[in-house]
# Entry
Amino acid sequence: MSTVTYTGVIAEDEPVLRAQLKELLGDVWPELDVVAAAEDGLRAMRALERHHPDVLFLDIEMAGLTGLEIAKHASGRCHVVFVTAYDHYAVAAFEEGAVDYVMKPLNAARLATACDRVKKRLPAAPVNLDGLLEMLAKRTAQAHPYLRWINASQGADVRLVTVDEICYFHSDTKYTRAVTANNEALIRKSLKELLEELDPALFWQIHRSTIVNVNAIAGVSRDFAGHLIVKLKNRKETLPVSQPFAHRFRQM
# Structure
């Protein structure tokens, strides 16, 4: 007895995540034939037209065309699993729209759950996404999600690091160091870019070259000259606080 084979398309503009998603799908849904892995919105649209997949794994924010534009095109034509960094404010919208989603960074167990739900829906016609997309468009216009993870280089390797793991960011000449409790890696983002993307309630600039995770702070002291110094919970080094940012610690 032959097994029914379904086809899938991945639309994700981050190379590491795109490869990871394809690998995880091979583990949790080996019967799914991934016929294309698109790196931007335009290629994703072409893949939909060429392959007519049963399932689309769709990143909401991509270059060329946004995920919302692609989802509108896919509405009623294939089943959609959203891949998103959006927080809980959008998750409710996904659930109301009877579609599936996985959060970034990717989790194999959560992806397996989403795939199981899609398998149950495959015999039925794909849902119309118009109402959901209208709701998401309104919510994304009101609040842009903060950065949740970064691609960090360690030697020849590139790995995903959630921002919650970061103790602090420190700017070097050409790169920025992302320092965790046990490791450090290089990223190609400036402190200025990071400040625009990180949650300002959790990440404070304390020096022209340093941003610290508030949750990583053990306490604050002063050196022999009276300058503020940040002590970290899981790192031995201390971080100097320059005068323009000293006001942040008046309540501590």
Notes: The mean pLDDT is 85. Residues 7-142 form a domain with the Rossmann fold fold (CATH 3.40.50.2300). The two ends are 69 Å apart (CA to CA).
